[in-house]
Sequence to fold (295 residues):
Amino acid sequence: MINQRKINTGHLLALLTILIWGTTFISTKILLKDFTPVEILFFRFLIGYFVLLLIYSRPIRTTSFKEELLFISAGLCGVTLYFLIENIALVYTLASNVGVIVSIAPFFTAVIAHFFLEEEKFHRQFFIGFLIALAGIILIGLNGSFLLQLNPIGDLLALLAPVVWAIYSVLMRKISLLKVHTIGATRRVFFYGLLFMLPTLFLFDFQLGLSRFKEISNVAHLLFLGLGASALCFLTWNKAVGILGAVKTSVYIYIVPVITVAASALVLNEKITWAILTGTFLTLTGSYISERKPK
Fold:
């Protein structure tokens, strides 16, 4: 009974994370008017790091460089590379393209986890669900137009992002097995992510530009990304991965386009079409099939 309660908690944490992450495309797209991708990334995770430091300041100890390397790699993949690639992709291609492409992360997670995690072997049912969910995700992205506007550079970057996220998810599963404090572990991952981010600040012409923070909208969106989508969501996601495993948790990423579309309708007054409704149904059905245990 206790185990089942823990599993239910894992599902709720994953769902909460996705509900928030599904709206981040809108905030990022708005901030790109005044900030560069690397500036958004740096300010976002700097806010997240200090919030986690205030909540839990105790250092966590690793017993070997091999264990420390897990945190270093997770910071590089899950913070620096993933979000930098995704944010740059948003400059070159449509948000809907990025939303569709990054949503195939569960597929890459299943493949990588199959080879690097003993307890997480993929099964046929997962791939059936993946294909159904992918059909729904594409339908949402196309929105019934049946004409995908391809932007090679942006779309290729968007395709690389879920591969990097899949590696991060597997790394976090390994970190969860170390039995370290979740907040402390997440904070250390953020630290290495920010460390790897420093060289990119010079490469991408980083500007402090404090005058931009006079805009309430900019401050609000950065706080949302820093407090909600970074500090809170990385905690809930990492905890969910520790409970459910990398593959089961990653299935929730299928729902991101559904949340993004719903948020766009509420915030940007975009229309809900038959394609979106059908795509939502297929996405949720595929997610359910992938999540179910094989007989």
Remarks:
- Residues 2-291 form one domain.
- The chain has one domain: 2-291.
- The chain has a mean pLDDT of 83.
